[in-house]
């Protein structure tokens, strides 16, 4: 019998282009903050899950093992999970297995990323995720698949670059109120449109930055959670699915793997009408169009209809369904695994009414966080309730 | 960040700090070298490229012709059944004008990249390649294109044996 799981504490570090702290130190800082918030010490933690994305960023193989002492995992059942950009939300999903299964009553979930070590640019690590025989010889960069996907999405539904730019404006604007944010800014659609073309149709301001940072949550069984807090946030649904790496054989206009992951999580959480029942969404937004893509995959907008949400105000912080009230990856920053976990943290703080200047206007009880990654192939989803 | 938390950890190293050597940097170059076996399916595909042809694998159960070829059908989860030659023409599924290279540095001249759905393969079976002999502003989704091959003596059994795709000139 599956047990109910709660989030009882969250923490995160600054997100910056380059941090002095090592990955271990960042993991420690985020984990310690989450423990303090939950009123626990490491002694109270029964298992630990660490999420971190490609080892190639750090040049450290066995990164999970390397990070173990900073993550508080020594001598405990410790797991490192990795599904590329999907890792940050996959980390609490794996933590959920630990607690829902009845194996453990408490689980510390830490997600860490340092992208800054790799020179001349962290983008270089992504070259090696492409097929080594058929794709890398063409001189690949990850930006290609984003720009190819964005173009296909625009083409299929007749969406304009200006409409997509509204997401960058909203998220960077929201991030102004996030104390950890790297790129919070009040910008306009014009600024996005006039920014340097990188990989057309992708322009500089359509993209999130590379970052260093860490974020963490503490999970607990219902029994333990109720003893420790009056404000548990229930992790009521988890979902994840992957497609193959044959991304050029796939429908690039619609993320079916996100739909499958979302439906798995909604079913578990008993959500029948996501658009009506979800109060806050934190979809993965490494690029502005990805927020739209993912809102559609999450069943929070019809196919090709997500751009309307920002334009009509629905997804603004004071709207009917705020989307990325944190500021998202576009504004807070994108230390890959930590960025997804930051979204889970944001949902936790929003549902507890602790988000301060970022607190959404509506009375929010249900939130969804989602991440995406690998070679355009993974969706990871968590549904949370206060 | 919760409003209950008033200070948040971390020390930023700014570009100015780097310039002023404010912090130590430890630099190592890691240069592993790999020699990959191309596999059963792709070895045949590469050998056919050397001959100036494209080949796929057919799954008799779902009747798909898979390009790039694989020895198993990932949907039916069974071995594929036969080799099928496909045309070296196709349709642009999507394209991009890339101004950056693998390490995010600016390219001297932009590169046109595309997913090309290969004719005679099943719908949606595309490969990644580049486009040339066309102005970026004239490329459209749905445009018909054809492979431009290297001369036979220069082909070596690599995806780059196709130099690029260009607008289709046939009928
Ligand atoms: Zn089949």
Structure description:
The complex is a heterodimer of chains A (about 375) and B (about 170). Chain A has 15 helices and eleven strands. In chain A, helix 1 (about 25-40) crosses helix 3 and helix 4 packs across helix 15. Chain A is an alpha/beta fold and about 375 residues long. In chain A, a hairpin with a 1-residue loop joins strand 5 (about 195-200) and strand 6. A nine-stranded mixed sheet of chain A has the order 3-2-4-7-1-8-11-10-9, with helices on both faces. In chain A, strands 5-6 form a two-stranded antiparallel ribbon. Chain B has helices spanning about 15-20, 40-50, and strands at about 55-60, 65, 70-75, 80, 80-85, 90-100, 105-120, 125-130, 145-150, 160-165. Chain B contains two helices and ten strands; from the N terminus they run ααββββββββββ. In chain B, strands 8-7-6-9-10 form a five-stranded antiparallel sheet, with no helix packed on it. Chain B has about 170 residues and is mainly beta. Chain B has one domain. Helix content of chain B is about 10%, strand content about 35%. The chains are: A alpha/beta (about 375), B mainly beta (about 170). The interface between A and B is large, with 66 and 58 residues. The structure holds zinc ion. Zinc ion binds near residues 59, 61 and 64 of chain B.
